[in-house]
Amino acid sequence: MREYLVDAIILKSVRARDADRIITLYTKQHGKKRVMAHGVDRAVSKKRGSVQPFSYSKLLLRRGREIDSIDQGEPIEIFQDLRQSLEGLATASYLAELVDNFTSEDDPDPVVFNLLLDAFTVLKGDCSEVLSWAFELKLLSQVGYCPCLEECVFCDQPVKGDKVFFLPEQGGVVCNNCKTAEVPAILISLGSLESLKALMRWETRMLHQIRIGMSAGREIQAMIRAFTEYHLEKKMKSCNFIDLLK
Ligand SMILES: [Zn+2]
Fold first, then answer.
1. pLDDT in tens, 76-117
2. Theoretical Cys-Cys bridge with 36: which of 52, 69, 98, 238, CB 3.0 to 4.6 Å?
3. 178 alpha carbon to ligand 1 midpoint, in Å?
4. In total, how many domains does the chain have?
5. By the 8 A CB rule, do 134 and 199 touch?
6. What is the pLDDT of residue 27?
7. Are residues 19 and 107 in the same domain?
8. Final residue before a domain boundary, out of 55, 78, 101
9. How remote is the CA of residue 175 from the centroid of ligand 1, in Å?
């Protein structure tokens, strides 16, 4: 069959030739896909509404020799709440960039799809930090980089004390006995560690109930960012935009 239907979340839209755009999708059926949307920048295009970044759409795709293209599209949900503020949009773009970076094409993962769908459903400007931390931890865990927060990464003993250290390269916490000055480490208080565990465990729609203070927030942010950048081997583009909004 040359045509096939997908449920897709729009991650990214990049202008191509004329009025065409290359759209990066995360689909329920096929995972990430890059597809061509012909003529979509024309005012008369019927596909326009269905390929807006951060929308959830039903798309009819047509197989092509080099790249598949969008034949028809219908938006299912445009997530109005996340579009009400710059912070909401910046966070959505950060989450989309994470999914783009940590997934491969044609490798479907329904957990990743639902994670993103749930996150966009509850995303509003005011709860965006907690949501994006939880999303990042859950996504990394799902793609094989689950941080180890219970036992020391070297000796497997439970970590104790008011403060612990997280090692991005080892992907977990280290106890006082095993910690050496040479390995890059991020200091986190025990309270922040408990918050991190809650962020990983709690369902996305319950996350608005989690309260995290400023200093714990700074520790959590530093830990998650270092962990992500270690695995990505680069900085996330949309980080700079989010930092500007703080
Ligand atoms: Zn140890």
1. 999 999 999 999 999 999 999 999 999 999 999 999 999 999
2. 69
3. 4
4. 2
5. yes
6. 98
7. no
8. 78
9. 4
**First vs last C-alpha separation in the chain:** 49
Q: Please, are residues 170 and 178 in contact by the beta-carbon 8 Å criterion? A: no
Residues 74 and 106 in one domain: no
Rounded to whole angstroms, the Cα distance separating 153 from 169 reads 11
Q: Are residues 9 and 108 in the same domain?
A: no
Q: Are residues 51 and 119 in the same domain?
A: no
Domain final position from 32, 56, 78: 78
Segments of the chain scoring below 70 in pLDDT: 125, 239-242, 244-246
* pTM of the model as a whole: 0.92
Candidates 66, 68, 46; CA nearest to 57 is 46
Could you list the residue range(s) of the whole structural domain that residue 104 is in?
81-147+162-245
Q: What are phi and psi of 208, to 5 degrees?
A: -65, -15
Specify the pLDDT at position 124. 83
Task: Return the amino acid letter for 2.
Answer: R
CA 228 – ligand 1 centroid, Å: 23
Residue 152 lies in a domain: no
* Dist CA 142 CA 182 (whole Å): 30
Q: What is the whole-number distance in angstroms between the Cα of residue 27 and the centre of ligand 1?
A: 41
